Amino acid sequence: MQKGMASPTTFSLMLHFLLLILCSSFHQPSLAFTSQEYQEALEKSILFFEGQRSGKLPSNQRLTWRADSGLSDGSSYHVNLVGGYYDAGDNVKFGLPMAFTTTLLAWSVIEFGSSMMDQIENARAAIRWSTDYLLKAATTTPDTLYVQVGDPNMDHKCWERPEDMDTPRNVYKVSAQNPGSDVAAETAAALAASSIVFGDSDPAYSSKLLQAAIKVFNFADRYRGSYSDSLGSVVCPFYCSYSGYHDELLWGASWIYKASGTSSYMQYIRSNGHILGADDDGFSFSWDDKRPGTKILLSKEFLEKNSEEFQLYKAHSDNYICSLMSGIPGSQAQYTRGGLLYKGSESNLQYVTSTSLLLLTYAKYLSANGGVVRCGTSTVTGENLVTLAKTQVDYILGDNPRKMSYMVGFGENYPKHVHHRGSSLPSVRARTQHISCNEGFQYLYAGSPNPNELVGAIVGGPDSNDNFSDYRNNYQQSEPATYINAPFVGAVAYFSAKPPTYY
Questions:
Q1: Is 420 a catalytic residue?
Q2: Of 16, 96, 398, 421, whose CB count within 10 A is highest?
């Protein structure tokens, strides 16, 4: 060791100290959540998905202010597309975010299902509500994937309950002539990851999911192109594929390999990885950009098998982690004074929850294999990643300057004016008469709290100054989304099983 150079242990201690500064110096934490409170948050984060259900609701539906909706979806196109999830506060079923939501719900169960205890069945039910729909969308017509139900431009001109929908329920698809490799490969990832979830509890269903995943991935790979180019204003600017489709192809192949163990998918990753973004760093994991998630998923191959060809994925995973660490080489993340990771002004908490899942998953992989992260001369341990993830989870649950929980129904102080049609309008049980498209806007602009509590919903969250406006029309901050909650399920499951003394 060169004279004057600190030891790796010293750097690790310095980093831990920096993390403690990041986690506590901006505001003094006053809330220490118990395992029971994390368990409550876990239950509610899964319950939220029942409020997003489309289709015929089951007899055990717990959010009883919701009722059946979209029962004729697809019928005018002679296809059954009943079911699935509304993505956020509107009444459209967007395929790309729905599939991503499903993949992350499945990943949450794969990594942290053993900590979910009595919530594991509810988690599987949340996944199955989506996979039942995705199976229909992916297997009904050869070389076709149905990717959306509802005209978003028309839907967004109305404020009405899903049970009252009278806007066009147009069906949109990608095909050999109009490809959509991004949405198709994400659908393959969702089906493959979910097949792992059901491997023990329902092997026949698991096999069905995996076979569908392989089929739709082959379609995605054979007919390459972005669904944004094929569907234009129907998906843009709502869920435009800004990152292109290469990241989804690598992500989808990785999940099929993980689910099947089939060597041809490993060979696909080896042969196509450099073309599909294996050499690129990605620093935001979202419904659009899968690069950080893929790198961490594949880094497990290197950590477990010390496979040199997968060292690249470990290196890029480390770069991603280094980007999140304040005060060390490679750092580029922005944090609010209250300690919240801040990536964007609209729905920032989607990045916080997805990052938290990646931090905990990578910490698990590292700890199981004696690995660490190298950021220049600094060393980051799995414990450091857990510490950072905990600050983000706790911030969302109320340990923040405003002492506000950003999960509806958790704690004493949480958003009451959520940007969500079904939650903000009188339920069909309270008012059976039809509420028309334009009539509903009076409820959007009303100052009163939402009459129906969308329990467990995590909203878009505060701004870069930790400020939050609980105003229904402020969709950037007050709208929930399935892909905000999905990774949080895994993160909060992890903490629900850890005693407070662990930290």
A1: no
A2: 96
